[in-house]
Amino acid sequence: MGRGRRHRGTTSKRNQIDNSNENVEKPLASFDSNNFQKPICSNLHFEEYYKEQRIVKAEEWDSFMEFLRKPLPAAFRVNSNGQFCDEIRLKVENDFMKSLQAEAVESGELEAIKPLPWYPKNLAWHSNFSRKEIRKNQILERFHEFLKLETEVGNMTRQESVSMVPPLFLDVHPDHFVLDMCAAPGSKTFQLLEIIHESSEPGSLPNGMVVANDVDYKRSNLLIHQTKRTCTTNLMVTNNEGQHFPSCNTKRTLSVASEINPHPIDQLLFDRVLCDVPCSGDGTLRKAPDIWRRWNSGSGNGLHSLQVVLAMRGLSLLKVGGRMIYSTCSMNPIEDEAVVAEILRRCGCSVELVDVSDKLPELIRRPGLTKWKVHDRGGWYRSYKDVPKSQRDGVLRSMFPSGKSDKDSTGGGNSYEEMAYISSDESAVEVCDLPLERCMRILPHDQNTGGFFIAVLHKVSPLPEFQEKINHRRNSFTRNNINSSEKSSYEAVSDTVVTKPEEGAEEIVLEATVSENGFNPPEKESTCDEGIVELAQKLDDMGGKREVPSLQGKWKGLYPVVFLRDKTVIDGIKTFYGIKDESFPLYGHLVTRNSDISSHGNVKRIYYVSKAVKDVLELNFAVGKPLKISSVGLKIFEKQSAKECEANCCSFRITSEGLHVILPYMTKQILYATMADFKNLLQHKSIKFLDFIHPQIGEKAAKLALGSCVMVLVDDTQLGSEPVKVKTSTIAIGCWKGKASLTVMVTTVDCHQLIERLSDRSKEVEIAENCLKTAETA
């Protein structure tokens, strides 16, 4: 069965004054042509700034600006581990690529859609049509509807092409623990989950997991909605500040850790970290032209300190031997190379910048800059010694290539020769001798994309001890404990980008409270979407009674979850569906929300978590719950309030999203059907046992126990030779067996998508059979 992604730290991914949906990665045709009728696609300060920084050669400047002023082409990606991955890719290649070509020629484009040459297996595509153009005629409208449907059910993701790049350089394996520090809106998280699941066998769960973090709970809801389409048990969404993300180290915790049994992990460290930080976002000018009118160099300067602190925290959470990606959607060297240079200086020999120039050779990118200048309202500065003392609160030494002033010769443990000078007509310009050319700059006019910056970092040894202490201290204290230079810069960011907590920002703060019976849940109701598992809590073993908690600070948007320990419920599910615990363990892997428990103690929804997620949940309990978990687990069972339920009927039905996880371990309540009966049920939604096309299928349906069951599609030759081994290609749907009929328990959208897929398969089979007959006749 297949599976159907910006505080970031403290703010949104792009440095925008408002918090509108512009922060969201746009759907296909990610721009509305109405926004570009009278665009303001110029900013004199922008042009002067980047000419001075020399990010492109003089002869390229006009081309660079021309592309920046054009709307961004839309892009989309096929889910690599989706059940219909190959079929969807072939449909794009053989159907839409050809049928849309005439429209492309009419619009003056050479190609309507084309695969991104650097993305593996032709799974990512670039379109030259706007949303208005897609709706212009019947062919384009059909393409648009196809994209919407496949995206909704999780088979595709509409995502800016440069946004797809960082996960490809992260080199994620299925057993890796991965942290996406500033994850909303979630398209990169979706990609990481695809990679985690890609090589897993049907019915087996990866040993790794992804922790997707975003400080803004509203943006977390968007992140949860995006990643919910992956139908994964291996994801945890958290609402911590990225620069204070906890390592959950039991050695530093004296609370309840000693009262709980030893855990498989004693500290939360990661094999891979994606640190895609908040930035000024001028690389997104093509999809967000409003940035033109309000761009200024101060935006990048104000975010520099936060970006450094986020990157350092990411490296602190990274295992030795692990890899971290630092990336921005900004072209500003103050947010890009200056941040990388500063973290290399702080980390010394413990971290190295990786040369990945031999990877993805068809992706055109440019080496990082080794020299740049700093600009603020006082003008241009070539070194920190030129900055007046009155300006040093906003212009920091870490912004310069050397990271030093003339009075400071200590570099925080750096092993590189950090700085040289070259002559210019005006004054000496600093040149950084760190290997910043290993960084990657993606510019819009190279491959008709947005702008992006990527640096790949490898942790070769533990960070210098004093840096670890600094990181721990920052993680333990509030933002008021940040040193003066960082604090001034942080406050500057807060004033222009994010609402401060004391001014009404909906910051999430929870001080864990412990009673004699365990962890008490908050009493606030959730604002998250139905079906989302939120803050993990330990259930009181003494009957599951919920106590009123005492909260400190603010709590908005989150609600606690408890481990399900009701033996009667779990044993009833195991018996009804024929699940053996040794093959598919339920105890310790099932959780539910407090809001899903009625006043009578009845559970409404049950969620399943992988072993990796389970271990992290238990670790979080042990150290006092510093992780503010907003989503965890895959909804696998839901209580069905059916009047037909009898004494031997399990009232918990299997959900559509959880079906692929549990089906390989079921030995009961399975009905095998051929294509004709399968499609007939999807089209009519409910069929009486006597009305099945194949009478034997209706007879077997009648013999099933009342309640939830699963219909599995098989070939005519397999009918009667059950059970059939579940494969990745196996198609199945959840149903409800009543007294006289079988009813499908699938959404209308899923039904429509599945009917289309089956129709395509039927056509392919018919064509193949006709070809075979023709060949035999010849």
Automatic annotation (TrEMBL):
Keywords for the protein's UniProt record, in alphabetical order: Methyltransferase, RNA-binding, S-adenosyl-L-methionine, Transferase
Any one GO MF annotation of this record: RNA binding
Tell me any Pfam family this protein matches.
Pre-PUA_NSUN2
Q: Does the keyword Ligase apply?
A: no
Record field: compositional bias (Polar residues): 12-22
Q: Which residues bind S-adenosyl-L-methionine?
A: 182-188, 214, 276
Q: Where is this region: Disordered?
A: 1-29, 395-417
Answer yes or no on keyword S-adenosyl-L-methionine. Answer: yes
Q: Where is the active site?
A: 329 (nucleophile)
Q: Where is the composition biased (Basic residues)?
A: 1-11
Could you tell me which residue ranges the SAM-dependent MTase RsmB/NOP-type domain spans?
Answer: 64-460
A GO biological process this protein is involved in? RNA methylation
Family assignment from sequence similarity: Belongs to the class I-like SAM-binding methyltransferase superfamily. RsmB/NOP family.
Q: What is this protein called?
A: S-adenosyl-L-methionine-dependent methyltransferase
